[in-house]
Amino acid sequence: MEKREAQKKGSLQPTPRVLVSCRGLDGEDNVLALAYCCNCSFDPPMLMVGIVPSRYSYDLIKKSGCFVVNLVDKEYKETFDYLGSTSKRDEDKLNIAKVRLEDGKVVNAPLLSDCPVNIECTIVDSILTGSHEMFVGKVEYVHSDTTITDDEGKIDFSKIDFV
Question: What's 105's DSSP letter?
């Protein structure tokens, strides 16, 4: 197998695209699309999300100390694309896209009702890594569609047709 140098940016792709939902201290909800999201601990369960500080949701998440990672399937692709390309600075994107939200069970942030998996997290640490701040979130609660979850609560990720 012959190798050549490849671009460093985004070298660990593909990864599942996610929508991260958040709520500001004033009760304002928002959602942003992220490419940087991964597990970073199994015990205790933790996720890490990377957010550019200039993003509208950055301050909402930093001040509230929590967020929800919403896994997106292809049925939600149009909404994902819109939410990922539009800032709440410019328009009321959640109302325009008719995004259905519901309150988290543990954290004070909304989850996207139409996504098959929603992972509630509280921030336990963060690190600036250049272009992004990586927020480490302790997994507090996982919501999963019953059609993809077995009796023991294990999610069958092969049943999700990811964006």
Answer: S
φ/ψ (deg, to 5) at 141 = -160, 140
DSSP three-state, residue 83: helix
**Domains annotated on the chain, with CATH:** 18-159 (2.30.110.10)
Among 8-22, 76-90, 100-114, 134-148, which is the least confidently predicted range? 8-22
Q: What is the DSSP string of 134-155?
A: EEEEEEEEEEE-GGGB-TT--B
Run of H or E residues at 20: strand 18-23
Q: If you search the block for the tokens 């250049």, which residue do you land on?
A: 130
Amino acid code (one letter) for 135: F
Q: Residues 4-58: pLDDT tens digits?
A: 676 666 555 557 789 999 999 999 999 999 988 999 999 999 999 999 999 999 9
Sign of CA dihedral 39, 120, 133, 19: positive
Question: If you average pLDDT over residues 149-154, what whole number do you get?
Answer: 92
Is 109 within 8 Å of 62 (Cβ atoms)?
A: no
